[in-house]
Amino acid sequence: MTQHPRRTPVAIVGGSGFIGSNLADSLLSDGEPVLVVDNLSRPGVEQNLEWLAGKHGSRLTVKTVDVRDAGAMQAALAPAKAIFHLAAQTAVTTSLVQPGEDLDVNLRGTFHVLEAARRTGAPVIFASTNKVYGGLPQIAVREMDDRYEPCDETIGANGVDETIGLDFCTPYGCSKGAADQYVLDYAKSYGLPTAVLRMSCIYGPRQFGTEDQGWVAHFLLSALRGWPITIYGNGKQVRDILHVADAVAAYRGVLARIGEFKGQAFNLGGGPRNAVSLRTLLAEIAGMTGHEVTLRYDQERTGDQPFFIADTRKIEAALGWKAHVSWRDGIRDLADWLRQHRLTPQTEVTRYVA
Fold this sequence. Notes:
Blueprint: E1 10-13, H1 18-29, E2 34-38, H2 45-56, E3 60-64, H3 70-77, E4 82-85, H4 92-97, H5 99-120, E5 124-129, E6 141-143, E7 148-150, H6 153-158, H7 170-190, E8 194-199, E9 201-203, H8 215-225, E10 229-232, E11 238-243, H9 244-256, H10 258-261, E12 264-268, E13 275-277, H11 278-289, E14 295-298, E15 307-308, H12 313-319, H13 327-341
Parallel strand pairs: 1-2, 1-4, 2-3, 4-5, 5-8, 8-12, 9-11, 10-14, 11-15
Antiparallel strand pairs: 6-7, 11-13
Helix pairs in contact: 1-2, 1-9, 3-5, 5-7, 8-11, 8-13
């Protein structure tokens, strides 16, 4: 029998996590070999890899490597034809307690990925965050019954676009923001095909959900279990939430046309149609579960934005992309998945975002 050479894989750094495992599944389902590079440090992520391996078999390769290890990253990524970089320290609160670790993972780790890619010329698509825009004090808001609204009607209608200006706040914002800029600069300085997606709130299946990260899943899990939820501030903060299926489509779309859009940053979120305040989301969850959610209130946290909706018109125009899953349909989809996969005796104690 003729032996066919193994096809060059797409690498996903942080591929055992929530977005990474969904992205891997999408690529693998289309016949693409995928290389997951991950240090497996978050409890529970092995379940995502078991799911991928069981579904896709030998098309999936896993290398256990930490982004802080430059040599190991270089070796791991050498065969990759493209790199999605999703590995990160993701919690603002953790960054305030351990800023050095946050810097090492988010900034130095990204530098190691870029240097590995510079040796091979592989495109790099980087997962950035809306936190690079800081607390957005320049956006005046008015307080309504259940939400904050911007006084600027244009922002209210379209959201915050990429021209608003970077304003890093908290160690997490600094480390992700600096990494964001490094990724864009490698296109300028070295001609490396790179792009950045500044994400708003992504949610969906395979998200574990904690208080610090993955708050949509955290709210749902807590409500389904009958646990109280702590709200920092008054709950009128507004976010645009995006189902992970739509996020995956955006990531793949940018890679497919990276030659056209290298060196560019795109906002990625649910946009105005999927904007919801914490209070509105909690009311919807109460209606879904059939009982009121017990709430506790605490002070606002450092760097929290009272209002953020991503203006996604740039990525929509560039790719023909749009968010297809409405937030109400999306949270029901996530709730169904959580009931099936997280509300069992084996997973009852899990409080981590994968």
